[in-house]
């Protein structure tokens, strides 16, 4: 049994496509699609699809954040493999079968898909989305080859159900924390880049900061909780040369230099939020409107 979990919040405009693209996958195994959201609008769209597809399960969560929504999903899910994704992205037609194939290796505890940007590469923020997603792709591939630790993308990943039962409600980066738990249980994490998930990234700098503040901030939070450094400003600094190589012209090189400055500013904000002010999830996890 496979459980596909979609967490969403006020994503009535995108949830239908997220579900339909999953339904278009040819899944041989018995499966269910759990759609979790606190708002009636998003759940209403999912219920319309439920009329024709009885494998869909619609669940209203309390609206206290994604970690608690996942904890509820972990309780409700019947599958041995849990595939996690979001209501504002959609997957490629063969993503699920590719991910499931990786679990034939019993040592694998989690499998990550590959985020692909839907933004225009012609503007600065669109270029950033390609640069950062391609850099993450390169690093996951390299880590896999060198048998080093790497972490799943929250846009699309899967875990063995019995390994993770609950995560802390204040978790900012649930994908990073769950990946850490997988390794701590002596399992391996695999990467299947052919399992693509298509993502619309922020269209303005304010939303970019909001999104990156909670994701990168989550890794800083994990370091405080576990004493294990996953991502940090110092680690990013070593990758500057690789980032600069991505630029193909002077315009892109300028965009890259601005990105480096933006990342320095971002890590300063994260240090203040997490290390000094110790902000709670509700203060950091803000809605990113331009990705919807």
Instruction: Report strand order across the widest sheet.
Output: 3-2-1-4-7-6-8-5
Mean pLDDT: 89
Main beta sheet strand tally, sense and closure: 8 strands, mixed
Question: What share of the residues lie within helices?
Answer: 40-55%
Poorly predicted runs are none
Overall morphology: globular
SSE pattern: EHEHEHEEHEHEHEHHHHH
Per DSSP E runs of 2 or more residues, the count of β-strands stands at 8
Question: Your description of this structure?
Answer:
By secondary structure, this protein is an alpha/beta fold. About 45% of the residues lie in helices and about 20% in strands. It contains eleven helices and eight strands. It has helices at about 15-25, 40-50, 65-75, 95-100, 125-145, 175-185, 205-225, 235, 240-245, 250-275, 280-285, and strands spanning about 1-5, 30-35, 55-60, 80-85, 90, 110-115, 155-160, 190-200. It has an eight-stranded mixed sheet, sandwiched between helices. Helix 1 (about 15-25) links the parallel strand 1 (about 1-5) and strand 2 (about 30-35). Helix 7 packs across helix 10. The longest helix is centred in the C-terminal third of the chain and has 27 residues, at about 250-275. The chain is globular, with a radius of gyration of 18 Å. It starts with a strand and ends in an 8-residue tail after the last helix. The relative contact order is 0.14. The mean pLDDT is about 90.
Task: Note the main attributes of this structure.
11 helices; alpha/beta; eight-stranded mixed sheet
Q: Topology of this protein?
A:
Layout (H helix, E strand, L loop, with lengths): L1 E6 L7 H9 L7 E7 L2 H11 L5 E5 L5 H11 L4 E6 L2 E3 L3 H8 L5 E10 L6 H23 L9 E5 L13 H11 L3 E12 L5 H22 L6 H5 L2 H6 L4 H27 L4 H4 L8
Parallel strand pairs: 1-2, 1-4, 2-3, 6-8
Antiparallel strand pairs: 4-7, 5-8, 6-7
Helix pairs in contact: 5-10, 7-10
């Amino acid at each position: 049994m496979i459980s596909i979990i979609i967490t969403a919040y006020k994503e009535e405009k995108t949830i239908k496509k997220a579900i339909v693209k999953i339904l278009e996958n040819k899944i041989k195994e018995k499966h269910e699609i759990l759609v979790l959201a606190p708002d009636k609008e998003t759940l209403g769209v999912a219920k319309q699809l439920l009329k024709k597809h009885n494998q869909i399960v619609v669940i209203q969560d309390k609206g206290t954040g994604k970690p608690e929504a996942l904890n509820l999903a972990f309780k409700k899910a019947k599958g041995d493999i849990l595939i996690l994704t979001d209501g504002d992205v959609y997957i490629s037609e063969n993503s699920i079968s590719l991910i499931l194939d990786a679990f034939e290796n019993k040592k694998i505890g989690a499998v990550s898909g590959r985020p692909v940007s839907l933004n225009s590469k012609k503007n600065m923020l669109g270029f950033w989305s390609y640069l950062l997603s391609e850099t993450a792709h390169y690093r996951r591939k390299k880590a896999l080859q060198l048998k080093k630790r790497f972490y799943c993308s929250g846009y699309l990943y899967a875990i063995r159900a019995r390994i993770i039962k609950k995560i802390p409600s204040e978790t900012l980066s649930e994908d990073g924390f769950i990946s850490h738990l997988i390794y701590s249980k002596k399992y391996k994490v695999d990467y299947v880049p052919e399992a693509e998930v298509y993502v619309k990234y922020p269209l303005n700098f304010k939303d970019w900061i909001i999104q990156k503040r909670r994701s990168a901030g989550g890794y800083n939070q994990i370091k405080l909780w576990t004493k294990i450094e996953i991502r940090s400003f110092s680690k990013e600094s070593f990758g500057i040369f690789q980032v600069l190589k991505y630029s193909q012209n002077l315009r892109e090189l300028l965009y890259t230099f601005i990105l480096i400055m933006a990342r320095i500013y971002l890590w300063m904000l994260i240090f203040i939020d997490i290390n000094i002010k110790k902000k709670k999830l509700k203060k950091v996890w803000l809605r990113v409107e331009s990705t919807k």
